[in-house]
Every structure is written in structure tokens, then in C-alpha cells.
């Protein structure tokens, strides 16, 4: 990836007016003074072997995003991050609205995100941080370490480290005011940021304050049918149509991608799906009519027909999002070289979105022929045509008065006290930093306008009371518990007492408290003068404790007697006492904690300094860790750099062992129970309880991370040219991954004693269970090549004003292989699979022209490119004479997925030395997203790869006094 020196130069060159301050052919002195985040040793320039990308404050300003997170995820190395456009379909994941970074497509769990080199309390029980909770206006640069860095920074840095560096001595006042909206007049946004800093008592006391507010209104659901949000025309009901077994035996592919898809298992206001009345739908007032299925009906889908009840477009494209951050830093200089400080951060991030309209029931409702709401003609046909007296009905439940809506709120409180500076020992100068941190994050997720499954089932089973003639719930027990009937047949306004019964106002709730305490100390300096240069060392120790507690509402968690919400949830015998009563959002209770003690040492040893052979140094690091849960772990790093005799050419290489310890969720997840059937390996199918629960016996994941790179930096024949190429190879073993119940049973019968401890299937009926836990079975292997190129030219050489900077970053993913590690399964290649997060190529190229109009105007154009790929690399593409599909290798008619190019245009104008106006247009051509069809009728987007919002305009004003 881009070398730190290269990136720093690019950031500096991009600053408006810089071309007027330094001639084009002069070396960039500031390049040599930036400390590398890939190491604990304060080395200058890019002498460290670990590749690092840097975005300066000037780069972030040019990006002009409401949230720094949105700027970072455009970097090619960042793949698989989560944000406000991802997980908008999810009710129960717990990560909705969480802005978390992922490197190399290895997941947010394997990327360590730091603030000023310090850990930040997680915003989720998985321990991942929320970048939106960081103070962003004071960030002067972001270092993205794209190699393994566990030896230097600790657990979770398998994919790398993202380190946010703030301006700790900011003096003056600055502010940023911005607003924007899309071409479709939605996702309107507003940002207000301000920071103030001042020195007192002869500048020994320094106080910095900042406050930030950002609001993005999101893109709301258009509701039911084949429609697009806000007038977008690209949504066309895509789906994967699955052929029958006979068709597959005749050589046709298992899957075919279709558009204008119509699901045949439900309609907008009800559809009979079996028997002689199959195809009868219900319209205005409950009037029955023949449903329009469309053509080419195979499996669950037809093409065309009545698509008014489809739910795919009902998912929000982007969440309604609000972030509020208040930050302060107070420092006292003990002397010219030493300071003590305290920082405090309060942040609250709230989101709101709708995962889907209604609550689709796909032909799985059993309706009795005497249901009081059935039209007379349908009731008569049911009585004569269904000997069992029961028919199947599917519905989108479009009569519901509101869509399901989810509201996550994350509130962080973080306090850090520390000291840093320099001291002399044995005639050597040493640097140190030490800090203690206490962080808390409270996450509350509320879900509104969602139904309780048991109550819904009782409410739709309605009869006429023989005594009163009133329509009531059939079940006497349900009536005694307050059951109110509802009519699901036709476009009929729902009975509001019935709605309040099936969708109580106190909907699903999850309350999570996460706490982090850290004590850390680091020292570095030169221990000796070697013949090739000073030998440097860094060493330190850290203690950390993480804990969490979470509870859900009793309808989801099943703990009514223990819940603080008992009074709001009166006893109801129709509901399950073990929870899982909601349509979605069944949150459970749990708690857990661990602590870790660790110490590390790192050496930087110059071993070659020759006019003939160049200069070289060795970088070695070792870290020992001891977890209270997972036991001991070790990380190490061995790297080297060689400044070759070739003008400007440097070679670097690093090999490291990196670790990720199991997080609180994986260790201590609360138990949830569902009923499943498994084969006991003796030809018998038995009913078992699937008990999903954490596994306190998990061990750390271990990764071997190798990289090799070449850097050409400002050679004498091209002073403003920089280029780097780095090859990386990351293998992760003991990957924490879960198995399904049948896999566990098979492994147990195969002799795996660790799994057998989680299986009990030979007891009396009703006592058999399988603990669906995570195990250290899986493995990951990813490798690829990163490229960076930067060039700056003073346009005065051509008689033109200002300077032009060209910058390009690209990542080529060669392999991204996930192996479940379970007998009978095969590894999965994710590189180029466009349903995932790792396209084969991801690139970003920008051209900036600064110093126009007397140094006042700067313009920039950016191209973001995603290469074409496949729907799934494991699928076999064929049209005829297809082989029989297998579970590992299904067949598909067309496995190709197109790539995409996005153009962004921006500019800034310096009104005066203190005031700058700017604008930005993202996705200038309004490139529509590529649709990714699924086997269900969903929105079928992959916002982790494609832009799903469309053209967006933003304008703003920055002041700096």
C-alpha cells in the first residue's frame, strides 16, 4: 500500500496555495518528520517495513464528507466496513448504524481502531469501535497500517490498524458548517463543528474544546411494490429463480437471475396458496379476485404479474443518522519536554430505519374455513374443497398501519489521564507515554411497530361468538389474556385494538452496557550507536479489562420475572416463557468479562550503511499476552528495509504473527433456543433443541502475515514522483466460527471430543440438544497486491497558475479464501464474489489543481473503480447440459456481475486567509447500483461494494482563526 512518506507528501501537496510556498523541485522536508504508526519506535520518514497509508487533514477536507468514516471506506484496502447504508435490512444483528472499519475484507473484528494510539471502548459486545463517536474536527491525520501490527499494538490487528491522530496543541478557533442532499431531494444532511484551543500561564496550561453535530435524514422506504425510493428508477424486483429437481436433471441450471419477479407465496393483502382455491387473492374490502402470477413460474417466483405486494423496495437505502460529540483536552507542561493531560469524550450516535414493510408470511398461515373474516364465497369453497377444514394463506400484511422501525442509540463516555515526554538516562534521551483510560458505552436498541408471533396467530384465528355474534379470537385462553381479532383478508383498515394487541408499544428492546479499563505505558529511545546508525528500542506493558452486560425485554428474552420491564409486560399464557416471541428482534440477556496482561519489546537495528550497497535496517518485535479466558498468546514481527543504491528505490519486507482473542460476545453470548431436526448418523431423524450460546473455551485466532514491497520515492530524476507496490499474504488459523447442529453431530460421530461435549442426542424425547457454539475450526487466507502512485507538477513550467497533483491507490485481491474446516465442506473463494466485500480490483484515482485564481481556487476530480466479478465463485455457469448441482457448487445461468466507476467533483475557494467555501458532488454521473438478486425478494443491494445512494451534492464553509 501507499508508503507513509508518499502519503504525507501527497497530503501536503494537496493543500491550497502550497505551490506558492515551495519550488516544485525542492525536496519535501516535512516528509521526514512524520512518525510511523506501524511501529512503537519513533522513527522518521518511511524507514519502517510495515506499509502505511496516511490521509492528512487536507485530504479529509477535500473529501468533504459529513463523517470521516465515509472518506476512509473509499480507500482500496478498506473492504467490508459497516456503516449507515449497510445492515439496513437487519432487526436483530445489533450492529445497525455502527461505523466500523474493516481491512482486507477480514472483518471489523480483525481491524484495530485507535485514537491517538490508544484503545477505545467498543460500541458493541464484539468490541468493535464506532468511528462516529470520535472527535473528528481535531483529527490532523489518519494512519492506516495495512500489515499485521499485533506485536506493536496488541490483539485484533490481524488485518491492520487504523489510528486517528488529533491535534493535541490546537490553538485558535475553527469551525465547519455544511449541508447537502441527493439528486432525489432526500438524505438531506447538515453538519456543524467547532473547536477552540488556547494556552494559559505562559502557555504551560493548554485547553482544547470541540463540539460536533451531524444529521443525515436517510432515505426512507417507499413501501410495497416494484418502486424506487425518492423516484429512483433502477429497482426492478430482482430475484434468483430456483429450478425444480426435474429441470436440473434435464441439464438446466439450478438458478437463474430474473427481474420483475413476483413471489407466488403471498400477495399484498392475502393469497390462498394451496388446494382448489389456490390463486385467490383479496382486494379492496376483502373482495376475492384471481391473482396475476405472471409468466415463467418456477419455484417461488414468476416473471411479471401482480407485484404490488413485493417487499424488497421497502428497506431503507440509508439510515436516518445523527451524531453528537463533545471533546476536551487539558494539558499542563511540567517543563519544556514533559506534560500531563486529561481528555474527556462524550458522544451519542442515533439511527433510525425500516428493515421491511409489513411482515410477510410466505404461505405458512393455516386458516380455518370458519374464519369469521373470510368472504362468504371463499368460506363456502373452503368448506367444500378442503377436507381438513384448513387452507394455507400468505400475505405481506400491507394492512399494518406502520412499518417496522429500528432505533439504535449508542452513548459513549470516555476519560483518559496520561503523561508523555522525554528524559535522559545513561546519557541517552528517552521518550515515554503512559495513560489510564476508563470508557463506557451504553447501547439501546428499540424496535417499534412489530408483532408478537403467538399473538398474531391467535388474533387472525377469528370466529363469531355464538352468544353475542361479535367476532372474537377462537382461543378462550387468548381471549382471557386480552386477544383482539384482526382481519388479514383484503385492503381493510386494521382493527386498532387488534393492532395494539399484536404490536404492543413496548416493543423489542436491547440494553447493553460495555466497559473498558486500560493502563498502558510505553518507552522508546536509542540504546547504542551501531556502526550503521543508532540502535533503537521500544518497550511497554498494558493491562486491560473488558466487560459487558445485556438484557432484553421479556417477550424476547423470556425472563419476565427478572426483567425491570415486568410491569410493562403483564403475564400472557399465550406467549412462550423462554422468549423469542417477536417477529424479529428477540434480544436475550447475558454478561461476561475478561482481562489481559501484556508486555512487548521492539528493536530497530541499522546493519548496513554503504555508499556502494546502500542502507538497511532490521525491525524486530515480540509481544506476550495472557488472557483470563483464552490463556496465553504471542505475537511477533520481523521486518527489514533496504535503501538500495538505485536512486530513490527502497525495498521493504515484513513477516509477523498476529492474534485476535475471542471477544465478549463469542465467549459469553446469552443462550437462545430454537427447535431443529438432525440426523443421528444412524438413519434416524430426531428432534433437538438448538441452544445457541457463547463458548468460554475459545482460544485466540493466529495469523501469519507476510508482505514484500518496493518504494520509489522522489528520485533525483523525478523529484515529485512517488510509487509503491506491496504484495501481502495473510493466513489465519483457529478462526472462530460457528457450526450448524448437523455439522456438530457429524463431527462428534467422527470422533471429535471437543464437539461431543456440546452434543447430547441419545436421551429421552424432549431432552436432546446441540449447543450451537463457535469453535476454533475455520481458517482464512487472503493475498493480493497494493499499488500507490503520486505525482505533482508546478504548472508554472507551462505558463499556467498553480500546481497539479495526481494520486492513485489500487488494491488487487488475488485470493480471499474461507475454509469452514468441517468435513464435507469446501473452501470458498471470496475474491471477486460481488455478493461479498472483496472485489478483485478496487481503485481510487484523483487529480487536483490547486492555486488557481491567484491561489484562491482549487478543483479536484476523483474516480472510484470496482472491477467486474461473479455472483459467487463457487457457482458453475451453464445454460444447457449442466452438471447436477451440489451444495458446494450450484449451477447458475449467468454468473457475471458488472463492475462500476464513480466520478466525484469537488472544489474550494479561499475567500480570505480565514474563510474557505467548498463544494462536493459525489457520484457525479448518478451511477445506479448493480443489483444482486437473492433467493428471497429483497432489496438485493450490496452497499459494501456499490454506491446505493446516488448523486449527492454538498456545500460548506470552513473558518480558521
From TrEMBL:
Top-level division of the source organism's lineage: Bacteria
Major place of residence: membrane
Keywords assigned: Cell outer membrane, Membrane, Receptor, Signal, TonB box, Transmembrane, Transmembrane beta strand, Transport
Gene3D superfamilies from the UniProt entry: TonB-dependent receptor, beta-barrel domain, TonB-dependent receptor, plug domain
Signal peptide range in chain numbering: 1-19
Polar residues bias locations: 47-57
Motif (TonB C-terminal box): 944-961
InterPro entries associated with the record: Beta-barrel_TonB, Beta-barrel_TonB_sf, Plug_dom, Plug_dom_sf, TonB-dep_rcpt-like, TonB_rcpt_CS
Keyword check for Transport: yes
GO CC terms, sorted: cell outer membrane
Location in the cell: Cell outer membrane
Domain TonB-dependent receptor plug per the UniProt entry, residue ranges: 48-161
Region named Disordered: 40-59
Any one Pfam family match given in the protein's UniProt record, by short name: Plug
Residue stretches making up the TonB-dependent receptor-like beta-barrel domain: 417-924
Membrane association type: Multi-pass membrane protein
Homology family: Belongs to the TonB-dependent receptor family.
Protein name: TonB-dependent receptor
Organism name: Duganella radicis
